[in-house]
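Workshop exercise sheet. Pairs work together: one partner reads the sequence aloud, the other fills in the structure field after running the prediction. Swap roles for the next sheet.
Pair: D.N. / O.F.
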Amino acid sequence: MKPRNSLFLGLCTLLLTSSGMWSCIGGSNNSGKAAPNLNAQLRQLIREHGLTGDPAKGRLLPSINDPLAQLGMKLFFTKGLGGNMDAACVSCHHPVFGGSDGLSLPIGVDAVDPDLIGPGRLHQAGAHGFDGGPTVPRNSPATFNVALWDSSLFWDSRVESLGKSAGFNGGDGYGIRTPDTPFGEADLMAGTNLAAAQSRFPVTSPEEMRAFTFEAGNDNTAVRDHLVARLGDFGIGAGELPGNTWLNEFQTAFSSSAGAEELITFERVVEAIGAYERSQTFVDNPWKDFVEGDQNAISRSAKRGAILFFKPVEDGGAGCVQCHSGDFFTDEQHYNIAVPQVGRGKGDGGTGTDDFGRFRETGQSEDMYAFRTPSLLNLAVSGPYGHSGAYTSLEAMVRHHLDVETAIANYDTSQLDPTVQTGDWQVNSQAALNDLLQKRVLGIQTVMNCVLNEQEFQDLMAFLDALNDPCVLDRQCLDPWIPDGSVSDPDGQRLNGKDQFGQPL
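Structure field:
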């Protein structure tokens, strides 16, 4: 399977040394030091970092077999939630692609073939907003393991818990902020967890699901109200999905006999979608087995890579854990690592095609070009990598972290689908790199150059490979999360995904 969305952020993220030099020095000595007793060294590092191997430990997560998650799956796959009924949540977040779409940048509405997901999905020429390439400016975040994020969702964390510590899924009593509310202010309609809160927004994005003509000129509330009226076959949405059986589905999931106008609300829609997404928890990987006691669960190369990953620079390691910490391998913070700025951007900068990242939310200079540290779980199905999907291979994404300046200088746009916009990538990427270099001068934590020999690099890659749950690479194992003919289709609008060769996903 072609790798697919997750930025490998912060590899070898270091601080300025007392000598004023940036360093992450590897060399064959590191592998040699690890040789005498790999297991003992690694066990010590596991203890030091307080790892259990299981980021889902202690969390109450729904099963895909729960009635609410089943309703969520049907809603996730229906084009009935698309303004023009040509896009669904699954258009950009299919389980076969790790809960993303296998593209550098997504195509939401106005696809040439709405049922084609992944490579080969193209935007209709002449459709609203078409400029020759993808209209969605950022890589699709994976829904897999979405339940394990405590602080925020989206690349810029525009859906975020407001608590002093996020707790589980924003459920700490401080509330969740969303784009519907000013920065720092809780959204009273956000719901009980981050996944539900996030699910409120793709349907309101003209590029993703809303389209440009549906409820044109009206606010997000009008869009959501129209969509639930469509599902419930009442009011403004009456007759738009003739003969649909959504009321029966909601009555079953919520154990209620209430009528459509009372029962089918947008809050219940996103509660169900959130339950489906939160059931997509895939953490049973070889690394977890090793941490839990199976000494033979990972290779010697992966063990050397793990030691390199967890050891600080001063002890001969690479210090990657500084950002990719904990069992979920992320600190959920934001950093500028100057991933090439490809695509149409977010309207920022002198070109109007730049993307200022977290700065767009906070207005703080330290957040310029900063994006959230991704988890490193299931990287095999989470590419292309970076907020812009600029790297189509994990190896290239890792090498970017080792020497950002060289990576930018040698970046090859031919790895991208030819429709991805690249006209301003050099000037925008140089601006991001300049900001990174200035942060280094100021001593702000960011990615630093890191020298590894080829064996160490391969060891590190072997460790990252041990973070993949085998289920995410097994289509049959993913069956419960993909509705088939035995699962009811309440409105006849199910998106039955297919690949570019016409084969079902």
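Discussion prompt: The longest helix spans residues 425-442. What would you look at next?
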